[in-house]
């Protein structure tokens, strides 16, 4: 019989901490938007092109920059592979966590064959494979390793620990290994909290920063191609480091 995680750590406590972290992240994001006002402005100016064109640019940017990860011309294949797996793995995990919170607010473990758990486990596998690909690329390339940032390493470490402790706590629960499941689950919650709290300061911000930057550039290109619109200055010094 699976271990009930709600009996280990109160669901209300987890929800309260999660909401507090969410408020903190939201405040930091709002402060950053002020700094990125030159990036955000063309998006609003793009409304002068009409709603059809404005929405078309949004959808094209989501398709190219988020779904297909076409971030740069010549984007290396290995990087595309790892980025896509991590992104889709995290999205699936987020969806499954949300669905679990909606349909199972008590926190009692769902059967392993339940669609929500299958969705979450699929996302977890994609995440782990993507992270393994990232680690392999960095450990086999001296240039990448030397150029890596502290925030990037912290982000990767926290993602890895969230994935590993998540699967470990799940296996321990299914095996009813009560002697270790509590410790592993607590570590999973702590790493998850650290990942979310540090999101605005690590490469987690790429999930919003890069698509937003490309969206702004696409609107600038569209506005500049309109003969009745004054030429806009390119966005400078606001690039998100890869």
CATH topology of the domain at 5-38 and 76-205: Fumarate Reductase Cytochrome B subunit
Q: Roughly what is the average pLDDT, rounded to an integer? A: 76
Q: Which residue ranges are poorly predicted, with pLDDT under 50 across at least 5 consecutive positions? A: 71-75, 227-242
Counting DSSP E segments of at least 2 residues, the number of strands comes to 0
Span between N and C termini? Answer: 45 Å
How would you describe this structure to a colleague?
The chain has 242 residues and is mainly alpha-helical. The protein has a domain of 164 residues: Transmembrane di-heme cytochromes, Chain C (Fumarate Reductase Cytochrome B subunit, Up-down Bundle). The chain contains nine helices and no strands. α2 crosses α9 and α4 runs antiparallel to α5. The longest helix is centred in the middle third of the chain and has 27 residues. The C terminus is likely disordered.
Kindly list the characteristics that best describe this protein.
9 helices; mainly alpha; about 0% strand; Fumarate Reductase Cytochrome B subunit; about 240 residues; disordered C terminus
Secondary-structure blueprint:
Elements: H1 11-35, H2 37-45, H3 51-67, H4 77-103, H5 115-139, H6 142-147, H7 150-174, H8 178-197, H9 206-224
Helix pairs in contact: 1-8, 2-9, 3-9, 4-5, 5-7, 7-8
A few lines on this structure:
The protein has 242 residues and is an all-alpha fold. The chain is built from nine helices and no strands. The chain has a domain of 164 residues: Up-down Bundle (Fumarate Reductase Cytochrome B subunit), CATH 1.20.950.
